[in-house]
Specification:
By secondary structure, this protein is an alpha+beta fold. The chain is built from 16 helices and 18 strands. This is CBS domain-containing protein.
Length: 416
Amino acid sequence: MSAQVSKIFVARLLGLDVFDPLGDRLGRLRDVVVVSRGPQKPAACVGLVVEVPGKRRVFVPMTRIQSMEANQVICSGLVNMRRFQQRGQEILVVAEMFDRPITFVDGSGRGIIEDVGLIQTRRGDWEINEYYVQRGVPSSSLLGLRSRRRDKVLVSWQDLRHGSQNEPQSADTFVATHDEMKPADFADALHEMNEKRRLEIAAHLQDERLADVLQELPDREQVQILSALGLERAADVLEEMDPDDAADLLAGIGEETKHQLLDLMNEEEAKDVRRLLAYPEGTAGSVMTPVPVILTPESTVAEALASVRLEELSPALASTVYVVRPPLETPTGRYLGQVHIQALLRAAPPEPLGDILDTELEPMSDLADISEVVRHLATYNLTSVGVTNKEGRLVGAITVDDVLDHILPDDWRSQD
């Protein structure tokens, strides 16, 4: 390695641009990977986790790091673009060591790790050398609360107890630290963990948060987490999921367990999921959202705008109001047409929806193949389309994100 620092703290590395030798940006540094060598030796740094375009995180071994400076990291040679998967003995410094409770060797008490210092040895290897620690932290801090006392010290790795005498970073702390992370990004973080850690973190998430995160994970990991929750908790989480996502998840579970979960769910929530599961796989009915925004022709523009403002609606679902004859719950009365958000914004608030209906765009049949739905959305540049049954009743709507999940490869979230 040339022109590099021989000592650096991990927190200073986070977010730095990583470049190849030609000066092309590879991505941003997101974490550092170390391997424990037992209580008598400092943990060895074996590589960096770099987020490349597409939000994929890849592993760059330290043998490929040419320099680490205050404003950039330069790697040499080719980088394997396969998605990073944490192995058994590997520890992610940011995800697993930051906020980790530790004990001082001299018996002076406990503390919380806030940063980790790396040093380069004479042989060119990197290892943990120091810890930046907040001392005197009460046990309540392990739930994400901070002590008013701010006694922070820089200590050598030899001054702390290592191995089984220290607890791993608590799942509560990890959840609290990443509370504002978007569900898709939190799912990425879970995906990179080993199975044991993934299940531990998932178990500490609130039902609604876990439901949002589950919807962003690969199918195999969704089933893995749901199966580990226990039937009662799993049913509660399924109730918090969008019906189409809950149906997709249940489709990958054994028949006996699936029926047990449906029986434990709230009757109204389960009803929507059962309807979706009844459709043949690959049809519009099997992937639709059964609860789009539905109003009558007498409803006003003002009422429609208030309906699409609901926070729980996705942007795609909020883009269209479907107009039907009562009843308004799917399957509704006769489907009349739809009103796009642009039409609502151009019309006067008191105007009835029946006066601004778009009746030219035909809805899709609930038995139509997904490929037909994709062509329809692409042909007319739509973000959503209504789905009707053979009686002409609205049974749901399909949005762009619904079909994307089904036309992309099954493992698109974790593709190399």
